[in-house]
Amino acid sequence: MTTVKFDSTGEPLKISFIFNGLIAASYTYTLWEANSNNKIERHFGNNQNPDDDIYVLPSPVNINIDRLIEFNVSFKGLDTVDIKDYTIKAEIYQGDNLVGSDKDSGEVTGNPQDALMFFMLKAE
Question: pTM for the complete prediction?
């Protein structure tokens, strides 16, 4: 789990998902309520269209203290001979400042693969 510290009186938070390598990927982004099993937001997406994979977290920004972000990706390499490497990244910004990130990288296997990342949001 990656801890992300942010200014609870600052600009809104946004999360961006980035896919590098020749992979077909679909994902679920879930924002969990602090200390609870309740979901605040749940979004689905994929990297096979021109839509941005960016989401703005709820405002005011201080309501996100101690919330958990889950980023769950399923993917498959499309060319396991010539392009073997992949990187899947999640980046959290406050305004234009990167305040947290994590990535999963490796080689495609030709079989379905998964990546899972968690972020705990904490006030500075």
Answer: 0.93
Tokens of 63: 């309501």
Tell me the per-residue pLDDT of 13-64, one tens digit each, with 9 for 90 and over.
999 999 999 999 999 999 999 999 999 999 999 999 989 999 999 999 999 9
3-class DSSP state of 63:
helix
Q: In angstroms, rounded to a whole number, what is the distance separating the alpha carbons of residues 77 and 52?
A: 21
CB 14 within 8 A of CB 55: yes
Structural domains in the chain?
Answer: 2-123 (2.60.60)
Distance CA 12, CA 60 (A): 7
> Are 57 and 14 within 8 A, CB to CB?
yes
Q: Which residues pair with 2 in a beta bridge?
A: 119
